[in-house]
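Side project, low priority. Logging it here so it doesn't get lost.
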Amino acid sequence: MKGLILAAGYGTRLYPYIKDTPKPLLDVAGQPIIDYLLADVQGLPDLDKVTVVSNEKFYDHFCRWARDQKGRSFEIKVISDGTSSPENRLGSIGDIIFALDAEKIVDDVLVLGGDNLFDFGLKEFVTFAQSKSPAVSLGLYDIGQIEEATKFGVAAVDANKKIISFEEKPKKPKSSLIAMCCYFLPRESLATVKRYQQQTNKADKAGEYIKWLSEQTDVYGFKFQGTWYDIGSIESYQDAQMVFKLKKQKERKIP
């Protein structure tokens, strides 16, 4: 199994924090966001490599970060998608396709957004997803507020956890159950990503791919429990700082 961290965004909504630092390398409670992601995948069975997709602007930042990584159970590789500004970025689907081609990936792939921050592991999700293979599975999270769900893909699942509806950033969400940027793509499904781009000529939002795919075949959703942030704004970044600092303080007090 291969891991893929999407880290090629430019984070314009996070200026001035992100002007000279990519979102995944922003510090939260003493460590960069991407370190939390690596901790979440550490020890996953069969995971032998994690590829970080950067843009050209921040490529050197990630290379310096990667050189300091020690004691991981998997190889870490940083690649640049060659883009230099928000205007020519490839988008999440474009970067997935770029990485699959550049690294010649033919294994199962666990895809994570580099601005995801959460306090739960991924082992249970991977086990669930493998049980649904060759179908694609994605991580779901109840964000708790309908108005907040308008910023995300909103999903509904049946008793078997199959996606029965998916709306990308709806104006009137049916629920607060939203899709995280957390996807398990079995090796048999990888060709569907390219087919989606070819048929729709879209490469920006992975949620649109999930909607398209779920209307053609089975796609499954796994609901996570715990704390999750999508670091997409200054407000969410500041909230995450506060919550994760408190978590670390409590952990230090536990004997």
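Brief comment: The chain has one domain: 2-253.
Revisit when time allows.
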